[in-house]
């Protein structure tokens, strides 16, 4: 199955789960808790306040070498958004990709997602744990803060 088929399938349209595809085209579904949505909303709000000339989005489908991954939050520059806005899934990773972690996420899974997003063109990947603590990564290493959004807090309150 590919992402276009997932999006077109009437049985999958209203599922209350986050859906991704693995490299074999299999659907992966993850139920989302309220804290997850709250953290996504706060991160989007902060990105909109702190950055100009771009857009912040939730649940953003990105084509990767291992299937479609859906970043919990992304920030796209205006130029990148104009390039990808009519695609079913983004052919490139936005400049900032954020994953809000759940209890089922593993360190290995997040390491792989970071690799996929960076391979796809992301400049930074952020992780937000269930307590709102942020981690910031560039392609080489973890950083003490975001280099793209210097004012972004290291902790999100919900």
Give a verbal description of the structure:
The protein has a six-stranded mixed beta sheet with strand order 3-4-5-6-7-8. A two-stranded antiparallel ribbon has the order 1-2. The relative contact order is 0.15. The chain is built from four helices and eight strands, in the order H-E-E-H-E-E-H-E-H-E-E-E. The model has no long low-confidence stretch (mean pLDDT 88). The chain is α+β, with helices and mostly antiparallel strands. It is 27% helix and 30% strand.
Quick recap:
It contains four helices and eight strands; from the N terminus they run αββαββαβαβββ. With 158 residues, it is of the alpha+beta class.
Please compute the radius of gyration using only Cα atoms: 15 Å
Q: Regions with pLDDT < 50 over 5+ consecutive residues?
A: none
Q: Can you tell me the CATH architecture?
A: Alpha-Beta Complex
The end-to-end span amounts to 37 Å
CATH homologous superfamily, by name? tt1808, chain A
Q: What's the level 1 CATH class?
A: Alpha Beta
* Helical fraction: 25-40%
Encode the helix/strand succession as letters.
HEEHEEHEHEEE
Give the overall shape, derived from the CA principal axes: globular
Please state roughly what percent of the residues sit in beta strands, choosing from under 5%, 5-15%, 15-25%, 25-35%, 35-45% or over 45%. 25-35%
Number of E strands: 8
């Amino acid at each position: 199955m590919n992402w276009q088929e997932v999006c077109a399938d009437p049985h999958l349209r209203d599922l209350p789960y986050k859906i991704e595809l693995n490299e074999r085209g299999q659907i992966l579904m993850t139920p989302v808790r309220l804290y997850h949505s709250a953290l996504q909303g706060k991160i989007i709000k902060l990105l909109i306040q702190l950055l100009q000339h771009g857009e912040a989005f939730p649940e953003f489908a990105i084509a990767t070498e291992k299937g479609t991954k859906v970043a919990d939050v992304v920030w796209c520059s205006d130029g990148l958004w104009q390039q990808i806005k009519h695609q079913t899934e983004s052919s490139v990773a936005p400049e900032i990709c954020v994953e809000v972690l759940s209890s089922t996420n593993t360190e290995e899974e997040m390491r792989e997602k970071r690799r996929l997003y960076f391979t796809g063109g992301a400049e930074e990947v952020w992780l937000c744990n269930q307590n709102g603590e942020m981690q910031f990564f560039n392609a080489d290493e973890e950083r003490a803060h975001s280099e793209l959004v210097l004012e972004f807090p290291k902790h999100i309150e919900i």
